[in-house]
Amino acid sequence: MTNRGTTQPLLDQLHQTHHTVGLGRKKFRRSKSTPVGEIAPVEINEIKNDQSLLRSKSILDKLHPSIRKVIVYLVIYLGIGTICFYFFRSKIKGKKIDGVLDSLYFCVVTMTTVGYGDLVPNSATTKLLACVFVFSGMALVGLVLSKAADYLVEKQETLLIKALHIGCRVGPSEILEEIETNKVRYKCFMVAAFLIMLIIIGTVVLTRAEKFDTVDAFYCVCATITTLGYGDKSFSTKAGRIFAIFWILTSTLCLGRFFLYVAEWNTEKRQKEIVKWVLSRRTTNVDLEEADLDDDGVVGAAEFVIYKLKEMGKINQHDVAAVLKEFESLDIDQSGTLSTADLTLAQSS
Predict the structure, then answer these.
(1) Entry's SUPFAM superfamilies (predicted)?
(2) DSSP assignments along 9-61, one per residue
């Protein structure tokens, strides 16, 4: 294998780290208990002033950057789309209720690719506008709204874990470990529950606002959230379209995230099965030969870890070679170890 001669310094460093990790953890824990310094009266007044300024901020400033970005992009997209389609509303045929409401509703239906057919472009200009807005809308949903949905789901994971462990004392470290272990599974459960709630709400609203029977309402809900959009059943009342503006965007995005999380869950399960197989299978002489990177006839802990990680598919030889290349570029004095002097020389050069 390549770079066998240059791996020994790195392996020695990993081996030393393996033996001293306990000491490092103790030092880190002691550093976390640093006492809080005293606060002068002037500083207290400054803190109070800062808190009053924080309270005076708008609601938008208190939101997470991902949510703010979604709101800004969504307002810009829907605002431009509504204005454009309202200006050319006479070139759109179908059942119309209100100019602004119909334009906003048509913009959402186009953005989510539902396409009922109850409102359709009827001129070259509106057809070209629809083409522009369907592509930009799909990009907005895929790049911006999906990230915001991931953020909201992850924010609820802690609440879900606490709910599952009612009556038990669950500390922050246990919650973090539980999230890291079953993150994708919890995402699937949460999005599935939210999706079921949206389906029920949509079915109830369609039976009340659009006067559909239960079967037709459920049929329209399924055709909407899957973006099938046959068009034989759709929102045709003012109350229904107001509801659809919010519900269509939320439900179609929720279904898309659900299938994505299911795919991630299956991939994670396969990866765990591979890891379990690698750790449970018997180690042979061939494995020792492959793991012996420096050809010294013995396999150290660092070499064994690297070999097992490669078997699990978590790293490959290209990754190892890239790390060794970076190590060699930082090891200016060619001593086989890195020091502060090496980093200073590397940065200056």
Answers:
(1) EF-hand, Voltage-gated potassium channels
(2) HHHHHHHHHHHHHHHHHHHHHHHTTPPPPP--HHHHHHHHHHHHHHHHS-HHH
159 Cβ contact list (under 8 Å, min separation 6) = none
| Cβ-contact 78, 133 below 8 angstroms | no
Across the chain, what does the average pLDDT equal? 77
Q: What is the DSSP string of 62-114?
A: HS-HHHHHHHHHHHHHHHHHHHHHHHTGGGEEE--S-HHHHHHHHHHHHHTT-
CA distance 158 to 172: 9
Residue with tokens 């759709």: 234
Alpha helix (H) residue ranges in 210-237: 214-225
Q: Which residue has the tokens 């083409």?
A: 131
User: Dihedral of CA 293/297/303/305: which sign?
Assistant: positive
Q: What percent of the chain has pLDDT over 90?
A: 26
Residue 121, beta-bridge partner list: 92
- CA angle in degrees (0–180, nearest 5) for 221-215-105: 30
DSSP class of residue 167?
Answer: T
Asked if residues 265 and 184 have their Cβ atoms less than 8 Å apart, the reply is: yes
Residue 64 CA to residue 202 CA, distance in Å, equals 28
Distance CA 120, CA 95 (A): 10
Whether the predicted pLDDT of 99 surpasses 60: yes
Which tokens belong to 288? 């020792």
Q: Where are the beta strands (DSSP E) in the chain?
A: 92-94, 119-121
Q: In which residue are the tokens 């005076």 written?
A: 56
pTM summary value = 0.65
Question: What is the distance between the alpha carbons of residues 8 and 299, in angstroms, rounded to a whole number?
Answer: 11
Q: For residues 71 and 145, give the distance between their C-alpha atoms in angstroms, rounded to a whole number.
A: 9
Say how far apart CA 299 and CA 305 lie, in whole Å. Answer: 10
Question: Which of 208, 241, 209, 235 lies closest to 220, judged by CA?
Answer: 235
- Say whether 278 sits in a helix, a strand or coil: helix
Distance CA 202, CA 226 (A): 13
How many Cα atoms are found within 13 Å in the side-chain-facing hemisphere of 109?
Answer: 27
